[in-house]
UniProtKB/TrEMBL annotation, chain A:
Keywords: Aminotransferase, Methyltransferase, Transferase. The lineage of its organism: Bacteria, Bacillati, Actinomycetota, Actinomycetes, Kitasatosporales. Substrate binds at residue 208. It comes from the Bacteria. Residues 301-380 form the Aminomethyltransferase C-terminal domain. It comes from Streptomyces phaeolivaceus. One of its GO terms (molecular function) is aminomethyltransferase activity. NCBIfam families: gcvT, PRK00389.1. The glycine cleavage system catalyzes the degradation of glycine. This is Aminomethyltransferase. GO terms for biological process: glycine decarboxylation via glycine cleavage system; methylation.
TrEMBL record, chain B:
PANTHER family: GLYCINE CLEAVAGE SYSTEM H PROTEIN, GLYCINE CLEAVAGE SYSTEM H PROTEIN-RELATED. GO terms for biological process: glycine decarboxylation via glycine cleavage system; protein lipoylation. The gene is gcvH. Transmembrane segments: none annotated. This is Glycine cleavage system H protein. Keywords: Lipoyl. The glycine cleavage system catalyzes the degradation of glycine. The H protein shuttles the methylamine group of glycine from the P protein to the T protein. The glycine cleavage system is composed of four proteins: P, T, L and H. CDD domains: GCS_H. Its cofactor is (R)-lipoate.
Length: 383, 125
């Protein structure tokens, strides 16, 4: 289970606080992280209906600065980073030369601080942080930009759920009403300097707060106090996984891998063959153009949602079956607290991918359990 | 976490009640329930079937994982807890009471079952 058995797990700045709250801890990509504090189902429901507070300090932050920062990222990533306005964020991916996905990322384009120079914050998955850092350093050759490992520079706290705007507003003068989804602005929260981003991974409105680790405990306690009256609870990685699954969001290592291109994952829209209005050359372009053409002519397996008719839970790797043969594979599965039934994401043959396709099942340890094919996401919040 | 003194325990975290007319009740401990997380599905052995001490006789599914259920003794299943089949969360909320799993007419008991104190020592490591 441990990804680094020979070294002690890394601990976040909030480690002692998690333990004092009685968290069940788990190894996650070499970090000792809270899995849950009490019932993961209650934590899930709190985020859907009220608010939850997460420690995400294991995520990998990489700062890219300099006059050539945007050009470097346009070359290194599949997205159009030069086209992102300062203060906005973009979901994107970093691919290999052969088009395989190295990681999915969020890139924040921070405000321009001096003429012509820009600063971007690249947030990578914990398990891929080193891979992404190494790739960006390698791909930075020839660009007037600096790639800096900022993993130790940030603690990351997330407040997610319908009550989260009220909670954060109580602690900041920053203009949260003017802060759109997928945008970030520098400010202070509870007196702590923070990059305040309106992002998350739960399907709910919410904020991610990037702060200096030395302020993490202070901020956690202020958020806890501000959320007291509206039912904010601390939340672990277990409910974060069921929340993102209900929201149909891919997870690296499950829906995304080096064996798939963004087109195979149904996320071809993140690949921009034109950047800043110009045809762009970037790592993986040739392979990705071929993958795009292939996706047109011979559709690959399609990522779909499956909803159980019974109560047995599909797990990653379980075969999806129809007419006695394997037509796909489950990538993520869990009991859905919101739907009250087990759900899964799975790649299935295009012939069985249409919502409502009948006769589809999941092979759960030898027994073929009936499942309904549905469009993703399973859950969409009302705006 | 308190483990009732009158019960006996297996190293696989089942508890076993004393026998009434040769029939004992089996459940999993609070320690095991906490480790599993929210239990969402319980597949229990069939009434009338024979179970063997230390062997798989069902499964408990939680949000994160599926775990085999073992029988701490050998014998014949006389009853399963339908309340748990309908509401598996009873395993979490009342592991030693309403969350019991099955009753078994004991044919043979292994000699390595633990007392409450020995079980506490077993889980302390």
């Amino acid at each position: 289970m441990s990804s680094s058995p020979t070294t002690a797990p890394r601990r976040t700045a909030l480690d002692a606080l998690h333990r004092s709250l009685g968290a069940t801890m788990t190894d996650f990509a070499g970090w000792d992280m809270p899995l849950r504090y009490g019932s993961e189902r209650d934590e899930h429901t709190a985020v859907r209906t009220r608010a939850g507070l997460f420690d995400l300090s294991h995520m990998g932050e990489i700062t890219v600065t300099g006059p050539g920062a945007a050009a470097l990222l346009d070359h290194a990533l599949v997205g159009d980073i030069g086209g992102v306005r300062p203060g906005r964020a973009r979901y994107t991916m970093i691919c290999r030369e052969d088009g395989g996905i190295l990681d999915d990322l969020i890139v924040y384009r921070l405000a321009e601080t001096e003429a012509g120079s820009s600063t971007c914050l690249v947030v990578a998955n914990a398990s891929n942080a080193q891979v992404v850092l190494d790739a960006l350093v390698e791909r930075s050759a020839g660009f007037d930009a600096e790639v800096r490992d900022d993993r130790d520079g940030y603690a990351l706290l997330a407040v997610q759920g319908p009550e989260s705007p009220g909670i954060v507003k109580a602690l900041t003068d920053a203009d949260l009403d003017g802060l759109k989804y997928y945008a970030g602005l520098p400010g202070t929260v509870a007196g702590v300097p923070a990059l305040i981003a309106r992002t998350g991974y739960t399907g709910e409105d919410g904020f991610e707060l990037f702060v200096n680790p030395e302020h993490a405990v202070e901020l956690w306690q202020a958020l806890t106090k501000a959320g007291e009256g509206v039912g904010l609870v601390p939340c672990g990685l277990s409910c974060r996984d069921t929340l993102r699954l209900e929201a149909g969001m891919p997870l690296y290592g499950h829906e995304l891998s080096t064996a798939l291109t963004p087109f195979d994952a149904g996320l071809g829209r993140v690949v921009k063959f034109e950047k800043s209005g110009q045809p762009a050359d970037f790592v993986g372009r040739t392979a990705l153009a071929e993958a795009a053409a292939r996706a047109e002519s011979a559709p690959p397996r399609v990522l779909v949602g499956l909803v159980a008719e019974g109560r047995r839970v599909p797990r990653a790797g379980y075969p999806v079956v129809a007419d006695g043969r394997v037509i796909g594979e489950v990538t993520s599965g869990a009991p859905s607290p919101t739907l009250g039934r087990p759900i899964a994401m799975a790649y299935v043959d295009a012939t069985h991918a249409a919502p409502g396709t009948v006769g589809v099942g999941v092979d759960i340890r030898g027994s073929h359990e009936p499942y309904e094919v549905v469009a993703l996401p399973f859950y969409k919040r009302r705006k | 976490m308190s483990n009732p003194q009158q019960l006996r325990y297996s190293k696989e975290h089942e508890w076993l009640s004393g026998a009434e007319d040769g029939v004992s009740t089996v459940g999993i401990t609070e320690f095991a329930a906490n480790a599993l997380g929210d239990v969402v599905y319980a597949q229990l052995p069939e009434v009338g079937s024979t179970v063997t001490a230390g062997e798989t006789c069902g499964e408990l599914e939680s949000t994160k994982s599926v775990s085999d259920l073992y029988s701490p003794v050998s014998g014949e299943i006389t009853e399963i807890n339908e309340d748990v089949v309908n509401d598996p969360s009873l395993v979490n909320t009342a592991p030693f009471e309403g969350g019991w799993l099955f009753k078994v007419r004991v044919a043979q008991e292994p000699d390595d079952l633990l007392s409450a104190d020995e079980y506490v020592a077993h889980t302390a490591g």
